[in-house]
Amino acid sequence: MNISFKAYNIANYLYMQYMPLEANYQSKESLSTAEIDGSDSYSLVKYIHDEIVKSKKSLAIFTETAFEARRLMEEMLWFSPDLKINLLPDWETLPYDHFSPHPDLISERLLTLYQVTQKSFDVVIIPVTTALHLLPPKSYIQQFSFHFSKGQKVDIEAFKNQLTLNGYMNVVRVMAPGEFSVRGSLIDLFPMGSIVPYRLDFFDDEIDSIRTFDVDSQRTLYPVNEIKLLPARECPMDEKSISIFRQNYREHFEGDPSRSSIYKDISKGIPIGGIEWYMPLFFEEMSDIFSYFSDNTIIYKHGNLDLACSHFWHETEKRFRLFAYDAERPILEPQNLLIKPDQFFKSINSYKKFDLKRKEVYEKIPDISIDRKNILPLSKLDNFITDNPKRVFILTDSLGRRETVSELLKLAGIKFKATDDWSSAAGISDQVVLTVSPLHQGYISSQHVVITESELYVNTVRQSRRRHRDKNFSTDAMVRDLSELKEGDPIVHEQYGVGRFKGLFNLDFGEGESEFLLLQYFGEDKLYVPVSNLELISRYSGGPAETAPLHRLGSDQWDKAKKKALRQIHDTAADLLNIYSQRSIKKGYAFKINLQDYERFTDGFPFEETDDQLTAINAVITDMESQKPMDRLICGDVGFGKTEVALRAAFIAANDGKQVAILVPTTLLAEQHYNNFMDRFSDSPIKIAEISRFKSKKNKLSRL
Into which CATH architecture does domain 146-229 fall? Predict the structure, then answer.
């Protein structure tokens, strides 16, 4: 009996050790399930409307990856924009990194934590690796969050002190979340969690108006009645918190703390890069994500959380062993920063849970891809729509892509209705609807079919969606980032002229240390420029860096140079105006584009176009379709895709019956381009020829 009892215990112990962590902590709480109807995001939206919103509960979704969290949020908001969905994003830094997360991420994190504390959300989505991190206590978010409204009486000095206590930085010009600027009765403020900055205009001690403004032009936009002020960082920097940090630092780390730059900087109220990995030292106790949830929160686990947790803990311990013995920058052990996976799954099981199950056998979208080599490239899609009784929604990535697919559908004779979003698409009765959507994959539900570009263009490599760059972005000569400057580089100061960059220095003028750029001018004169005035600095572009002149401070040399340049600019502008006035009178040839042939040709490009490449291609096509003579120069570094722009322009011209000549500087380059063109035009009847000094005169004439 004893032997069999021991054997049973050993077997049970081994099973409990090596079974998945989630299985170790199976909840006794009720688990509601639903079948996936098409896609997970669509099914979740249906469940949320039926079970969460009506019963005034909330849903917490833990995802395996940060990508899945962002995807779910985008797709669910597209299906139902009225849902209050918050994402707690990852820091997007590696454990123990020496730099802090981007301010936009911190802003989004603090907004989500605030919304959760206020219970003003329907869904919160959290990557499981983010959920393992210990968080500031709820009391910190609540204590350092404020509301200000129009007409409210506020002590301006106390307000400025409160902003500083909340971690906001006093700057000359507000550009990013967590910054404020004071100019007389005006206070510019970019609150964390806000997508726009605000300008508060005071009349004595009363807020006379609150308006949003544009960070680039600094112009006011539209009025609002109130703003919400959240803390600027997850680590507080007030006197009490710094005192707690100093005490905890001495308890956790051996040695003389006065020799640690981290200890000295934090003691002075200077936040260091990577301060988030010292967060527990700023509080008497930390919280986990579950302490933010209410009792009526329902949990949904998306993906293999067990594997993600184990991998993240393994990577964190690995990096801890790598950096643990750096005496100048001691680090906390992983268990002081993260929840252990077993504790995480234990906490999950104290809540009611919801799960989505997919049927073992379910209907999938057949092959409906566009076949460019077919006379009817959309024949598969047309047959599928004809044989399918359900409504079909065709989704594209952008408005531009919608227009492209729209032309293809018209050429194929497929009747459809174009809309801008899901609500308008679902509200019409047409069988085929074309609209724009962030959905990554199509599906077949019980009521409709959704087709995305992933199903239409199966052979095209598409990158995961990125945040779109501001369309007003201009790659001018302004130095946007100090990392672009190297010691000795020539630079131009707007007021003092050309000097050389000599590095960054901290100077204290009695109001705390500030960072300055040191510029050296003629005669070794020095000029210190505050980092906040970086917009006054631009790159020197007047020739080789070695031959750049140095101007003398205090002389009129720079003013004379600017006046001379202005005269030359005026003369050049006059010449250009004359040239362009003559060009505007002339008429060029307006090329006609066969969209089906063009799309077939572009399918031969084995990569996804970059944003800049697409911009250049679209600009060239617009020029070719216009009757105005083209006057465009495409610039780009080696390997950045200029040849593809030329290939597409050449195809459009040749396909419209014109002869195209490509001029290159060397014979070798002519041979390389000839091979590239032969490869890309292999499926078209267009003839390609090469002319160089190695070809005979007879051969050249026959080719021409």
Answer: 2-Layer Sandwich (3.30)
